[in-house]
Amino acid sequence: MTTVTIWNEFVHEKENDTVADIYPEGIHGAIATALDENGFKTQTATLQEPEHGLTEDVLADTDVLTWWGHAAHNEVKDEVVERVQQHVLEGMGLVVLHSAHASKVFRKLMGTSCNLKWREAAETERLWVTNPTHPIANGIGEFIEVPDAEMYGEHFDIPEPDSLIFTSWFEGGEVFRSGCCYHRGEGRIFYFRPGHETYPVYHQEEIQQVLANACEWVSPNPDAPEIVRGNHEPIEEIDMTDDRSVH
Ligand code: ZN
Q1: How many structural domains does the chain have?
Q2: How far is the CA of 219 from the centre of ligand 1 (A)?
Q3: Is residue 234 one of the residues assigned to a domain?
Q4: What separation in Å is there between the alpha carbon of 221 and the centre of ligand 1?
Q5: Is the peptide bond prior to 28 cis by the omega test (within 30 degrees of 0)?
Q6: From CA 176, how far away is CA 181, in angstroms rounded?
């Protein structure tokens, strides 16, 4: 069974009644419940725990890490960020959610600012599926409509995605690359835009379906061939008589 660790900075839920009403168990609690129901083994971790709940032991036992942050990106310790990066390079899956576009973890793995345009006006968002044969789009129709969303607009300063699964349209006129796949080392990464804390986005069924599909897609492949690097003996015998460097 795939083990997912759901990380949340867990700040807004404790400071804002609207957010606490929507997510009484925290955003991490809502995501964990949704993934439990989709057959994943889940555990949660938050900023306030020692090492933000992401010790070497926890990450060694994690197939997929999901990341939600907004108000406290700078409070995440660099050594934890480096530990997460290392685990991704070694094959751990990573799902980066909404305002975690600006998290240290995502910016480090992308190598760009990950800045974007934004507006809070409870507007309609329509996420069009732009890659319908990709497994992350399984079970989704032509589009997902989020009735009240925070707008994120282009330009989004990210490297060109390896696959683009969703492109959002917003009521105010902007568009945005909302579902982006990346490979870094042996790890897979999916950035998924929806999830503003004052709207009940993670309670929406299609959004939960995408989260489950994404956790499945980024999870490590246990049947992948062993990776071999470094100086290597030739498989066939090589004629070295024409090699001037050995004479
Ligand atoms: Zn937001």
Answers
A1: 1
A2: 26
A3: no
A4: 32
A5: no
A6: 14
pLDDT tens digit at each of 247 positions of the chain: 999 999 999 999 999 999 999 999 999 999 999 999 999 999 999 999 999 999 999 999 999 999 999 999 999 999 999 999 999 999 999 999 999 999 999 999 999 999 999 999 999 999 999 999 999 999 999 999 999 999 999 999 999 999 999 999 999 999 999 999 999 999 999 999 999 999 999 999 999 999 999 999 999 999 999 999 999 999 999 998 888 876 5
Any domain includes 239: no
CA 118 – ligand 1 centroid, Å: 9
CATH assignment of the domain containing 219: 3.40.50.880
Q: Please tell me what DSSP assigns to residue 202.
A: G
How many CA atoms, within 13 angstroms, populate the side-chain half-sphere of residue 90?
11
Ligand 1 centroid distance, CA of 14 (Å)? 16
**CA–centroid distance, residue 241 to ligand 1 (Å):** 66
Its pTM surpasses 0.90: yes
Domain with 24, as residue range(s), is 3-223
What are the structure tokens assigned to 150, written together?
């925070």
d(CA 130, ligand 1 centre) in Å: 23
Determine the distance separating the centroid of ligand 1 and the alpha carbon of 182, expressed in angstroms.
Answer: 22
> Would you say residue 150 lies in a domain?
yes
H-type alpha helices, 121-229: 205-218
